[in-house]
Every structure is written in C-alpha cells, then in structure tokens.
C-alpha cells in the first residue's frame, strides 16, 4: 500500500431500535458484572431517548445494551471511536464484555 494514500474511515450509527435499558438505583451493576449480558428485567428501547421516557420520574444510573457488528477497520492497527451524543453527566462503556 502506498503510504501517501489514505483510506477513508467509515462511520456507522447505533441509533435506533434493538437496545435494552435497565435502571440501577442501588449502583450494583458494576459489582454484579452487568456488563457481561443484558439484565432479565431490561426493557426494549429505541435510542436516542431519555431514561425518563422508559422510566418516568427516575433519576439515576442506567445500563444500555446493544449487539452490533463493527465494520472491519481499514487502517492497519487502527482504532475505533464511539461517540455518545446524549450522555447525561458521565458514561462508562464496555465492548464485548
């Protein structure tokens, strides 16, 4: 490959259906490893949305899950970038557990 040529990056959106959301009012999700799989009580959701659309009057921690296939990275040793537009205060993200 010619080092003077560039391969365009590809962007995909994860907006839309096929998300699930569960609330974590007691902040136990990290200790209980909720990042490994969606919770049985998780509700289906379309993102973007506010947590109050799913759980009215709730203000606190929530977990969101979505399965997706990332496209092959065209850049040898390249990285992936996740961009969150509607995070309220703070977010931690796990990919593949």
Describe, in short, the structure shown.
The chain has 97 residues and is mainly β.
Word description of this protein:
- This protein is mainly beta and 97 residues long.
- It has a domain at 17-65.
- The protein has one helix and three strands; from the N terminus they run ββαβ.
- A three-stranded antiparallel β-sheet has the order 2-1-3, with no helix packed on it.
- It is elongated, with a radius of gyration of 17 Å.
User: How many β strands by DSSP?
Assistant: 3
Strand order of the largest sheet: 2-1-3
Which ranges are low-confidence, i.e. pLDDT below 50, for 5 or more consecutive residues?
Answer: none
- What is the percent of helical residues? under 10%
Q: N- to C-terminal separation?
A: 34 Å
- CA radius of gyration is 17 Å
Average pLDDT? 87
Largest sheet: 3 strands, antiparallel
> SS-based structural class?
mainly beta
Q: H/E element string?
A: EEHE
Strand content: 15-25%
* Helix run count: 1
* Form type: elongated
Notable traits:
mainly beta; single chain; 4% helix; 1 helix; elongated
Topology at a glance:
Elements (H helix, E strand, L loop, with lengths): L15 E8 L19 E5 L3 H4 L7 E4 L32
Antiparallel strand pairs: 1-2, 1-3
